[in-house]
Amino acid sequence: MSQMKSSRKSLLIAWWASGALGAACIAFAHADDPGGKPAVNVGEVNGQAGGSTTDKKHRAKISMASPVQSVHISQAVIEEDTPPGGSMVEAIAANTPGFQARRTGTASGANRYQIRLNGIQIGFDETGQAEMNGNQVLMDGIPLNNPLASYHGFSTAELPIASMFSGINVVYGPGTAKQHWFDSMGGTIDFSTKSSGEKPSVFVDVGGGSFNAYNASTGISTGSIDGWRTYIAGGYTRTGQARVSPSLTGPSQSTAFFLKTQKRFEGGHFAMGFYFNNTQENRPHLIPVYPFAGGSINGNGVAGQALSQTTSGFYYTPSSDLWTKNEQYHTYLGYIKLTSNLTRNVKFNNALWYRAGNRLKVRIDNYPMVPKLNTEYYPTSSGNFGYRGDFTITLPWNKIDVGGYYQQTTYDSSFAGYGSLVPGHELGSNSPLYYRDDHDHWSAASAFLQDKITPVSFLSITPGLNLINYHISVNNVTSVTAPSLFPGDSVGSFPTVAGDTANFTKLAPSLALNAAIAPEIHAFATWSQNFQTQIDSAYGEGASHPVIAPTEPAKINSYMAGLKYAHGPVEGQVAFVHQKLTDLAVQITQAESQNIIVEPANETINGVNFLLAYGRRLGFNARLIGSILHGSENTINASGDPVNGARVTGLPTYNINFGIGYRVYAARTLWSARILDNYQSATYLSSDISAAPTSLKLPFSAVNLVNLSLSARTTMFDRDVPGLKLMRVSLMLDNLLNREYNVQGYVSAGGNYGPGSVGTILASPGTPRAVYASLTAMF
């Protein structure tokens, strides 16, 4: 019933907002407009779209000359495709072929997403995943990933405020040798922050919407002061839960702050930046798709309505008295970057950075109603120090890049598990039933040499080599034993594995070609290899059984080839993909906090992704983007039996976006309307019982989602508000048709809902219909 009320409320807000926007459109269209031209071009304020009739800033842009498939998403596109207060991941998904985004909550930037690029993932997913940190995430070219953490190597909630960013660059696969980072397997995603212009300016953005969501952010550009330009930004976003429950645990919320100062000097450029993020996320429980014996909304074996999507409700989640999980993230990043033109033909780029991160997870699980390890306190912290330097040497018919990077990481991870039904061992007491403490160290040193050869004007050949060294040390420093914490304990659930060390040195080659068949048609092909270290548990962290550490790092062999087209308002791209991942490690949870590793596992992903876009700054625009990917996995299950050719968990075969829109300029206002239709086919499940992929499909995972967005950018009120340059109003309806669908799931071994739930499919539902609106003022 409450869900129906929420949907009706969303529809009412949407109807009202749409009517208000339409009325404003009519009013503005008939308003006096002396001279017929705005005092300020609505397309030029704050670095937005220029005055050309074919303005590519209003859509994702491909680089014709690049031998690597890539997509650049402009600030205008981020604003158009990101829900107010939402995650920029939505803008990437709407504009990037082969990119898949699945969120565990609403579209808010305070919620985390699991994302895939050409089938390779990063971010939280369910059990049995072979590749968990397969995409490199950068901010202003600085790496954000923790190379050791498993599902938490990077969370999209670390970048919650979209208004801080001026663009996103997506590179597929490892890229060329110069583009390789330690997690560049499926691809590299670089988020570029805004910078101050030559003149002072300020923007303020406020918004809100369904599920008690609201957000506010601001950005201040100082302009040029003695040649120094400084940009300061901050923001807050929060959202309630889309789930229905007797007692939800609270909202998810994020704050972020950014400061960047820079100066150009004769022959170079200097920049220094600092970033901070704090996110608190409350996550509801996965719910059984179908009922299981003894399971009710009141607990295992407790009388009550059967618990499942088909009985208690698609969005139902148990009371927080039975299950809660709260996670908190802190991110600190500081960097210095310097570019110097040493000679006319030699440029030197270098960057120095330090990133620190903290994560705390607190979980209480009382649903099974039997004495067990059902609460946990799980803090982690990491510190990353790095340096990168490279020279670009421009010669006739050649551009040579040579350089490298070094990063060292420390990662401390402790875990305390309690039994809330065991007297003296409640959460927060000094007597946990389970305890471990690990101090880990990781370092990477990389040196690359790359030469872009242009023997003729229409052909470029880019060979490259990347020499990589990785060192990993996982150290179990737990200083207590099970009997000392819990007398009489005989299960041996405390770590007895000392951890392990590993050292790998590998040479990763790349070869890329770009040929201009005609000025508007380019062919490209890229072959690239890269190597990546396994997560901490592969080397014994948290294990209570002997672990055979990987003898090789994970490896990708990536082939991509295709065609690019750009002429006037039309842009297109098609790329064929073949990716082979080897020496992956799969984590198996045999019992509470008892892990072993099955190694190796291999994945093969084949397919095609495509893009076709049409659009000018004004008038009709359309785009079709998508991917058809087939992923198979060869691994070993928990019983030691081979599993060959199983479909990669969570990867849809079809992922297609089709969008149409229209822009018109009237009464000093740029009006924009766009509708986006996304189809994803069904995904396959993994099993917590076998720790392997299955042939089962996640129920209700095939879905067709429709989003609608409306916006108006106007200078209409400039004469009335001192200093105002532009105002923007936007409205977005998410899941317009109110589809019910699941985004993630797995086959349970009974750990969450008790023995009767063994073999049950647990799922996380997508968000029902939601509406969001925002108002932005630029001064």
TrEMBL record:
- InterPro entries reported in the protein's UniProt record: Beta-barrel_TonB_sf (IPR036942), Plug_dom (IPR012910), Plug_dom_sf (IPR037066), TonB_rcpt_CS (IPR010917)
Q: List cellular component terms (GO).
A: cell outer membrane
Q: Which Gene3D superfamilies match?
A: TonB-dependent receptor, beta-barrel domain (2.40.170.20), TonB-dependent receptor, plug domain (2.170.130.10)
Give a yes or no for keyword Membrane in this entry.
Answer: yes
Supply the alphabetized keyword list.
Answer: Cell outer membrane, Membrane, Receptor, Signal, TonB box
Q: Which Pfam families match?
A: Plug (PF07715)
Q: Indicate where this protein resides in the cell.
A: Cell outer membrane
Q: Please list the residue ranges annotated as the TonB-dependent receptor plug domain.
A: 66-178
Q: Where are the transmembrane segments?
A: none
First and last residue of the signal peptide: 1-31
Where is coiled-coil annotated?
A: none
Question: What's the domain of life for this entry?
Answer: Bacteria
Listed name of the protein = TonB-dependent receptor
Organism, by scientific name, is Acidithiobacillus ferrooxidans (Thiobacillus ferrooxidans)
